[in-house]
Amino acid sequence: MSLRCEVLAIGTELLLGQVVDTNSAWIGGRLAEAGISCYYQAKVGDNHDRIVAALRAGLDRSDAVICCGGLGPTQDDITREAIAEVMGVGLRRDPAIEAGLRERFHGREVPVSNYRQADVPEGASPVLASTGTAPGLICPVGPKVVYAVPGVPSEMREMVGGPIVEDLVARAGEQATVRSRFLRVWGVPESKVAEMVAPRFDVLEGGPTTIAFLASVTEGVRVRITTRAVGPEAPAQATAALDAEEAALRELLGGSVGGVDDDGLEVVVGRLLAQAGLRLAVAESLTGGLVCARLTSVPGASTWFAGGVVSYTPEVKRSVLGVGPGPVVSSEAAQEMAAGVRQALGADVAMSLTGVAGPDTQEDRPVGTLFVGLDLQGDVVARGAVLGGGSRQLVRERAATYALDLLRQRLLQAH
Amino acid sequence: MSLRCEVLAIGTELLLGQVVDTNSAWIGGRLAEAGISCYYQAKVGDNHDRIVAALRAGLDRSDAVICCGGLGPTQDDITREAIAEVMGVGLRRDPAIEAGLRERFHGREVPVSNYRQADVPEGASPVLASTGTAPGLICPVGPKVVYAVPGVPSEMREMVGGPIVEDLVARAGEQATVRSRFLRVWGVPESKVAEMVAPRFDVLEGGPTTIAFLASVTEGVRVRITTRAVGPEAPAQATAALDAEEAALRELLGGSVGGVDDDGLEVVVGRLLAQAGLRLAVAESLTGGLVCARLTSVPGASTWFAGGVVSYTPEVKRSVLGVGPGPVVSSEAAQEMAAGVRQALGADVAMSLTGVAGPDTQEDRPVGTLFVGLDLQGDVVARGAVLGGGSRQLVRERAATYALDLLRQRLLQAH
Fold first, then answer.
1. Mean pLDDT confidence for B1-22
2. pLDDT category, B178, cuts 50, 70, 90?
3. Which domain holds residue A249?
4. Spatial separation of the C-alpha atoms in residues A135 and A158, rounded to whole Å
5. B191 and B333 share one domain
6. Within an 8 Å CB–CB cutoff, is residue B302 touching chain A?
7. Which CATH number characterizes residue B348's domain?
8. Do A212 and B12 make contact, defined as CB atoms within 8 angstroms?
9. Which of A112, A371, B60, B406 is spaced 20 to 30 Å from A272 by Cα?
10. For residue B306, what are the CA distances in angstroms to A317, B301, B302?
11. CB distance from B409 to chain A under 8 Å?
C-alpha cells in the first residue's frame, strides 16, 4: 500500500470564499506525480482547537499531513502552536531562523511579532525558503509526520516541490508513479461518451488504470485515463499503460476524439487549418469577439488566422460585410456574413455567428438561437441551432464552442 | 449559536489537482452572507466508502453538509448512493425527474445511464435546475441535513443561492445577516489605495464593519466592505452600515472609484458612452477580440457599441483599416487603426490596440509592448506602455484592462 498524505489548508479567508484555495490542487498534483496517495483534503479557519482537531483526524486516516498557511507573523497565524499541541511538545526559538530574520531586514529593526516565525515545535526541523520570511516545518508525530508550509504560493511550491516531496518519497520506500492523460471529445454529450466507452470499465475493473469524465461548456468532454505503477520501471510502465488505454478508447470513440491533454478546440482547429495551408476569417455577432479571442489565445495563430469583424449592429453587418436586407438572425445572413468577411479580409476560409445571446429575444427568435455560416473557398453553407437557455455569458460560450466544433468537423471532411 | 454548515467537494480530479475547486469558496461566501457558520470544508475522491465517511464526519461536527459534484450520469458519479447509505435508505426512481429528462432530450432517445439521475434517496426531495439534467437533493438525516448539488458551477450556484440557502436560513431560526459591497477602483495600485483609505481602519476598529482589498488584472482593485447584523432588523441595519462606509470611502478615494460590486470596467465604459450618446468601435491586434468580448458581455451593449475589427495580420491592418507602411507595433499604427475602424464602422469613438503578446518579440519590441489609439470624433491620440511580462494570456488581459481604463479616463475628461 502506498503512503497516504492529506492536505490541510488553513485560513478563515478560504472558508469565507474571499480567496480560492489553489495551493491544495497544486500539492495534490505533485503528490500524484510522486506516487503518494492523497484521498482527502480539507480547509479550516484560524482557530486553534479546530486546526488541532483537523490535524488529528488527518493523522488518524493517513501517514502524513501537509498543512498550508498560518505561518506568518500576525496574531491569526497559529499553525505552529497547533502542531506543537498535536506533537505534545512546547515551542523553542530557533537562533538560526532568528538570525535569518535579522538579515532579511537589512539592519532595520525587525518588528517584534516577526520573531514568532522563529518559533519551532521541539523535535521539528525547519525548512528554509530562498524568499519570504516564514520557514516551513517537518514535524514528526510518532511514526507519522506533519509538514507545515506558508500559504504564499511561490514559497509553498518551493518547499513542497523540493524537500517535502523528497522526505515523503524517502518514507514511502517504494517508488510509485501516477500519471494521467486526457482525451478531448467535442460534439458528443457526456452521457453518450460514457455509453460508448462503457465496455472499458469491465476490462479495467480492479486494475491499476481507471477512466473518468469531466464535462464543461468550453472544454467539451474530457476522458481522463489515470494509471499507477510501482517499482524502478514505474514511469515507463505508466506511459505504456496510458498508450494502451488511449488506443482502446480511440477504437470506441472514433473521430470524436479531437485532441489530447491541453489541445483545446482552438488548438485543434488551428492545427487543421495549418495542415491544409488555409487562413481563417471570422465574423461574430452574438459572441462579440469570443471566438476570435479563443483562436488568438493560441501562440502562432497568425499563420492560420487572418482576423475578424465583430459586426455587433445590423448596420455594420450590412456596410462592412454586405449583408442584404431582411432579418440578421437567419441562415441567409450567416451565409452572407461568412462570404463577406472572407472577401473583406482576403482569407481562404470564413466562419460567421449570428444569433440571440439574451437577455431579450431578437427578431422574434428565442434566446439561444444560433446560425453559423461556413465559407470554404467559396463553398458556403449555414447551420441553425437552438442552444439551451441560461445566462447571456453561457449562451455566448456555448455558441462559440458549437461553431468551432462545426468548423473542426467541416475541415476534417474537406481534407 | 448560529447554524453550522460544512462543504464537501467530491471528485478525484479535485484531489489530483486537475481541476481547482472554486465551488467551495463560492458556497462559503454565500453561507457567510446568510449568517451561517462554515468552519470546515473538505474534498474527497469518487470513492464510496470515503464519501460516506466524510459525510458522517461532517454531520458529527455540524448541522448540515452541502456536497458538490458526483451527481452526473456516469459510472463515477456515486454521490446519490453514498448519501442513501448515510441516511440508511434505498434509492427510488423519481417519475417527475424521469419525465423531465425525456423532455430535455426533445424526443431523441435518452441514454440509459442518464436515468440514474432520476434516482433519489428515499425521503429526500429533489431540487430542479433551469438548465442541466442533474437535480440537486435535500436529504434529511435525523435533525440534520445533507444537500447535494452538481459540480457544474452555474447549476450549483442556482441551487445553493436559491432553495438551499433558504432552507438553511429557515432551519437557523436566528436571523443574522452578513453583507458585503465592493467599490471598484482602476488605475491606482493596491498599496496606494490602502494608503488612501488608512484612516478608516482606526474608525472601524472593534466594530461590526471591516474593509479589505482584493486586486486582480481584469478586475482592478476592489475594496470590500463587510458588515454583520443580528436580529429582525438585520438586513436594513446591514444596508445602512454599508451605505455609510461607502460614503466615507468615496470621500477618501474620490474619482478613482469607477463603480460598485459587479460594475466591471466594460460596464463603466458602456455607461459613460451611453450617457454621452456615443457609439464605440474597436480595432484589436494583440488582444485578438478580448476587448470586444468584454464589451459585448454587457447586456444592451448594442446601444453604445457598433462593433470591431480583429486585425490580426499586418495585411488586414493595411487593407481593412488603412494602416500605412512602416511598423505595425507603433504609436502611428495605433492612431491609424483607431481612425480607420471609426470610419469603417461609422462610429463616434474608436479605440485600437497593437502590441506584442508573446511568446516571441515582434518588430524588435519586447513582449508586453502596447500602443493604444483613441479617436474621439476625429481627435486622435495614442499612448504607449510596456506592461509587465508573464504568460501570453496575462499580457493580453493586462492590455485589455489598460486600454479600457484609458478610454474610461478619456471619456470622463471629455464630458
1. 91
2. confident
3. 176-260
4. 11
5. no
6. yes
7. 3.90.950.20
8. yes
9. A371
10. 10, 9, 6
11. no
What are the chain B neighbours of A289 within 8 Å (beta carbons)? 284, 289-293, 295-296, 308, 310
CATH of residue A160's domain is 3.40.980.10
Note whether B17 contacts A26, CB cutoff 8 Å.
Answer: yes
Neighbour count for residue B219 (Cβ, 10 Å): 15
Contact A21 B17 (CB under 8 A): no
Cβ distance of B25 and A38 shorter than 8 Å: no
Residues of chain A with pLDDT under 50: none
Contact B312 A299 (CB under 8 A): no
| Residue A30 touches partner B, C-beta closer than 8 Å | yes
Using one digit for the tens of pLDDT, what is the confidence trace for B321-354?
A: 999 999 999 999 999 999 999 999 999 999 999 9
Q: Mean pLDDT over all residues of chain B?
A: 91
Q: How many domains does chain A have?
A: 3
Is B92 part of the contact surface with chain A (CB cutoff 8 Å)?
no
Residue B341: CB atoms within 10 Å: 29
Whether the pLDDT of residue B166 is over 60: the answer is yes
Question: Mind listing the pLDDT tens digit for each residue in B75-111?
Answer: 889 999 999 999 999 999 999 888 888 887 777 788 8
In this complex, do B39 and A44 lie within 8 Å of one another by their Cβ atoms? Answer: yes
Q: Are residues A320 and A376 in the same domain?
A: yes
Q: How far apart are CA B135 and CA A113, in angstroms?
A: 51
One domain for residues A111 and A190 = no
Task: Tell me the three state secondary structure of residue B95.
Answer: helix
Predicted confidence at residue A310, as pLDDT, reads 97
Closest approach of chain B CAs to the CA of A96, in angstroms?
Answer: 32
Are B83 and B25 within one domain? yes
Contacts of B109 in chain A (CB under 8 A): none
Grid coordinates of A344: 473583406
A306 near B315, Cβ under 8 Å? yes
Q: What is the pTM of this model?
A: 0.75
State whether A249 and A274 are in the same domain.
no
Is B393 touching A (CB cutoff 8 A)? yes
pLDDT tens-place string over residues B51-61: 999 999 999 99
Residues A131 and A13 occupy one common structural domain: yes
Nearest C-alpha neighbor of A136 from the set A161, A111, A112, A113? A161
* Beta pairing partners, B41: A43, B7
Do A285 and A254 reside in the same domain of the chain? no
The answer to whether residue B57 neighbours chain A at the CB level (below 8 Å) is yes
**B343 phi, psi to nearest 5 deg:** -70, -50
Q: Are residues A271 and A256 in the same domain?
A: no
For residue A221, what is the domain's CATH number? 3.30.70.2860
**pLDDT for B65:** 98
Task: Give the Cα separation of A302 and A107 in Å (integer).
Answer: 53
Nearest residue, CB atoms, A289 vs list B75, B293, B319: B293
